[in-house]
Design a protein that fits this description.
The complex is a heterodimer of chains A (113) and B (115).
Chain A (H helix, E strand, L loop, with lengths): L2 E4 L4 E4 L4 E8 L5 E7 L6 E7 L4 E4 L2 E6 L4 E6 L8 E8 L7 E3 L3 E6 L1
Parallel strand pairs in A: 2-11
Antiparallel strand pairs in A: 1-3, 3-8, 4-5, 4-9, 6-7, 7-8, 9-10, 9-11
Chain B lengths: L3 E4 L2 E4 L5 E7 L5 E8 L3 E8 L6 E2 L6 E5 L5 E5 L8 E8 L10 E2 L3 E5 L1
Parallel strand pairs in B: 2-11
Antiparallel strand pairs in B: 1-3, 3-8, 4-5, 4-9, 5-6, 7-8, 9-10, 9-11
Chain lengths: 113, 115
């Protein structure tokens, strides 16, 4: 069956360091992968999208990589700040499924000052 | 723009009661979605509407019905609530102009507790 896995354990990191989150998938051939941020009690907010033919995408302090051979995406937050504390979700499209996304369970990040 | 709005924010139901969750978007988006989010399960798609006048089942549609009232509004109905439907429900929308690379915009969620 199709599966998306994100580390369910919270990632505790010191302010200023780089946080690296992993999204692994099986039995998918996604055309693109998205990352969302979710704060407690709120809906997810889109951060970045990377297409299957792109290796890397950056936006300010965020960087996403996409390795379709390893079936993995890495999400990096450089120079992390306490305001980056949130849960980060990856989402993939499903082949021939139009605009529907399938989400991973998310990884909680806690940046300590 | 308000984006995606949902009502109510919080609801407590008894088993067997019915209710409708309301969702509206003011971004002129074609597609709308209903998800539920449970601890450790991520977001799971309940129903979606690719365009006005169409609806389709998602991953977990049992126990729910939907109505795409117009382009702006997409409601989710629980006909006979069960404790297993205790969850946080999110509505989302996307432009869906035909390309597959669509980002979704989410509402603030409705927290539902079924006793």
């Amino acid at each position: 069956s199709q599966k998306i896995e994100q580390n369910s354990e919270a990632l505790n990191i010191q302010e200023g360091k780089t946080a690296t989150l992993t999204c692994n998938y099986t039995n998918y051939s996604p055309a693109y992968l998205q990352w969302y941020r979710q704060d407690p009690g709120r809906g997810p907010v889109f951060l970045l999208l990377i297409r299957e033919n792109e290796k890397e995408k950056r936006k300010e302090r965020l960087k996403v990589t996409f390795d379709t051979t390893l079936k993995q995406s890495l999400f990096h937050i450089t120079a992390s700040q306490p305001a980056d504390s949130a849960t980060y979700l990856c989402a993939l499209d499903r082949a021939a499924a139009g605009n529907k996304l399938t989400f991973g369970g998310g990884t909680r990040v806690l940046v300590k000052p | 723009n308000a984006g995606v709005t949902q009502t109510p924010k919080f609801q407590v139901l008894k088993t067997g009661q019915s209710m409708t969750l309301q969702c509206a978007q003011d971004m002129n988006h074609n597609s709308m979605y209903w998800y539920r989010q449970d601890p450790g399960m991520g977001l799971r798609l309940i129903y979606y509407s690719a365009s006005e006048g169409t609806t389709d089942k998602g991953e977990v549609p049992n126990g729910y019905n939907v109505s795409r009232l117009n382009k702006r509004e997409f409601s989710l109905r629980l006909e006979s609530a069960a404790p297993s439907q205790t969850s946080v429900y999110f509505c989302a929308s996307s432009e869906a102009t035909g390309g597959r690379w669509e980002t979704q915009y989410f509402g603030p969620g409705t927290r539902l507790l079924v006793l």
